Amino acid sequence: MSSSPAQRRPFFCGNWKLNGSIAESLALATEVRNGVATLRNADVVVAPSFTALHAVAKRLEDGPVAVSAQDCHFEDKGAFTGEVSAPQLADVGCKYVILGHSERRQLFGELDAAVNLKARAALRAGLSPIICVGETLAERDAGETLGRVQAQLDAAIAGMTDADLGRCLVAYEPVWAIGTGRTATPGQAQEVHAFIRASVARRSGVAPTLRILYGGSMKPDNVRALMSEADVDGGLVGGASLQAESFARMVKEGS
Ligand code: PGA
Prior knowledge:
Elements: E1 11-15, H1 22-35, E2 43-47, H2 50-60, E3 65-69, H3 86-92, E4 96-99, H4 102-108, H5 112-124, E5 128-133, H6 137-141, H7 145-157, H8 162-165, E6 169-172, H9 186-201, E7 212-215, H10 223-227, E8 234-237, H11 244-254
Parallel strand pairs: 1-2, 1-8, 2-3, 3-4, 4-5, 5-6, 6-7, 7-8
The structure holds 2-phosphoglycolic acid (PGA).
C-alpha cells in the first residue's frame, strides 16, 4: 500500500549519538536552527546526549527545531539507578524519543518487549516515539529482512490504540547501512517502507499519515533519490547530522 506523500510532512532527525559537550551541542543546535531558518515544509529535530538535552531544548525553545532524546526508561520513576524516564525527558523540553535503535539492541541487549514498554511510557509522558526497526546483513542475506522488520514492528506497537499509533514515527534502519557509508538503494528502502505501511494498515487507519523515516548513511547527495520513493518520508541521520551545514543541506535537498 502506498499513499500520497502530500499527506506526510517530511521529517528529519539528527541523531548525535554519544557526541558533544554542552557547549559543542549548543553550537551545533544553534547552527542547525540558523541553517533551516527559512525552511517551512519539513519538521526538523535534533537528538543530543542526555547531558545536553536541557541546554539545547532551552536554546531552541519557541523555534522551529524540536528536541529528541535517544532512549528512555520504561518506568516513570523508582529505584532504577542510572536510568532516565520519559516524564523527565518531557520536563527538559523533549518532544520525541528515539527507541529501539540498533545500537541499543546490538550493544546493550535491548529486547523487542522493552521497546514496547518504552514506547508506551513515552506516549504516557506526551512524547512521540521514533521506533527503529531493521535487519542485519546476515538476516538480509538469508532472505529474512521482511520477517525481522515485521517481528520488531509488531512487538514495538503491540497494544497501541490508533491515537497512540498516530503519534508514533517508524524509522527503517538497515543495520548494515548504519555508519558504514553503504546506503540502502532507494528501491531497497521503498520495499521495506511500503511493507511497514501495509503492515500498519492491516491494524490501523493511521497508516496513510504514518511517517516512515529511512536511516543508514543518509547524506546530502543521496537524500533526494531516497525521498523520491513514495513511502520514504524523511530521515534519521547519524554521521551527516554532526555538521550543521551538511544536515541543513540534506534537509533542504530532501524537503
Ligand atoms: P548514520 O546513522 O547516518 O551515521 O548511518 C544513522 C543512525 O544510526 O540513526
